[in-house]
Amino acid sequence: MNLKALFKSMLLRKFATGLLIFQLVLTIGLACNSLLLSIEANEKLARDVGFDMENVLVFQVRPTSEAFLDANFFLSVIDEDMAALNKLDVVETVSFTNQLPLMKGGNFHSIEDVNQPEDAPVERQFTGVPMYYVGEQFFELLGAQMQLGRDFTLDDNATHGYLENHEFEANIILTRSLAEALYPGESAVGKHTSEGRVIGVVSDIAIRPSSKYPHHGIFMYRNMARSQMRLMYMVKVTSGDIQKTKTAITEAIKQVHPEREIREILTMEEHHSDYFKESSSLATLFSLLTGMMLLVTMISCFAHAHFHVSKQKRLIGIRRALGARKKDVLIYVLSENWLVSGIAALLGVASVIAVNMLLAEVIVIPKPDVISYLSCVIIVFISGTAATWLPAWKTTKIAPVVATRTL
């Protein structure tokens, strides 16, 4: 392969060659960042959330009657709901909550030890901590393990205490990460905090994966019993026809009190997918754009090679007449594409970094690495070679006698 001759040939078509190199550089930049987004989205979906999602259904219930403005009436209906759901053959465990794991938005509180000086600022990681108001069997339903202390019992129910404005200290459970951060080097069980007395420490569960502190959470056994507040039921069911199970749950809730709106019943797997939908959708979008860009680039490589061959029939004819083999002609045509791809690979580093910096202004995206970059360069190189193969192969079919007639 004569590089000097190839460069001279490329210089004869500076504009077309430069445009192809520019297109390849952009394709590499887009492909590499699309690959990073896809890898990150798949990692998020595959990451352990710390709790069971199989056969767990969740749904929100909103009252549509003024009767629910009475907190005691609201609580009595919730008790009936729980009893009705527990009677269903397909139901194993039922609990309620004000919000779900894997959440965006919600109820947040600050937490600190009661002995913390009043004028001392609260550390950032202890402000805006998700606050869960849950039922007795919440952790059992999720399969989350109690690592220190104990789980909630009926005696820990703080609902009436708050409704009746009693002076009391609620019992709470913290996630392991929060407990260790709040009380480093010592057990949090028995400690008194601004949110209540710690009775247990539960294993970390995915609460806000996109947050700096994804596992920080506070849990209290309490039912808000307010019509304007969000109430969600979580139901662990036996395996079977999920659609029939959803219908049975809806009928059971409606039979207790019909004047309520039941939002869509989702499985925790669906809720999990919805939480990461933005990341996966963005990765899919960029993958489609990359695929289209790669297709256009392949068409350009094909056109560039076809034009190159059509303009150099005389030179190829001379080479064939002087004894060049079909293999030599094939490599000669392909080598120009390889050279263009090599130049694009060198310039593509700047493109990858530039696209990554632009995307980082609006979304969270990992930094490019050598492996992802080389993977995309190889994909572009193979695509370009495949697109150039047909014109190169057709060139080998030119007989020396036919080719020399153009002289």
Helix content: 40-55%
> What is the global morphology?
elongated
- In whole angstroms, the N-to-C terminal distance is 24 Å
Give me the oligomer status. Answer: single chain
What does this structure look like?
It contains 13 helices and twelve strands. The mean pLDDT is 84. The chain is α+β, with helices and mostly antiparallel strands and 407 residues long. The protein folds into two domains: 3-46 and 278-404, no CATH class; 56-276, no CATH class.
Question: Which SSEs are present, and which pair or pack?
Answer:
Elements: H1 3-11, H2 14-46, E1 56-63, H3 71-87, E2 91-97, E3 108-109, E4 129-134, H4 138-142, E5 146-149, H5 159-163, E6 171-175, H6 176-182, E7 192-193, E8 196-202, E9 218-221, E10 232-237, H7 242-256, E11 260-262, E12 266-267, H8 268-275, H9 277-311, H10 313-321, H11 326-360, H12 370-395, H13 400-404
Parallel strand pairs: 4-9, 6-8
Antiparallel strand pairs: 1-10, 1-11, 1-12, 2-10, 3-4, 5-8, 6-9, 7-8
Helix pairs in contact: 2-9, 2-11, 2-12, 3-7, 9-11, 9-12, 11-12
What keywords describe this structure?
407 residues; 2 domains; 7-stranded mixed sheet; 14% strand
Q: What is the structure about, briefly put?
A:
With 407 residues, this protein is α+β, with helices and mostly antiparallel strands.
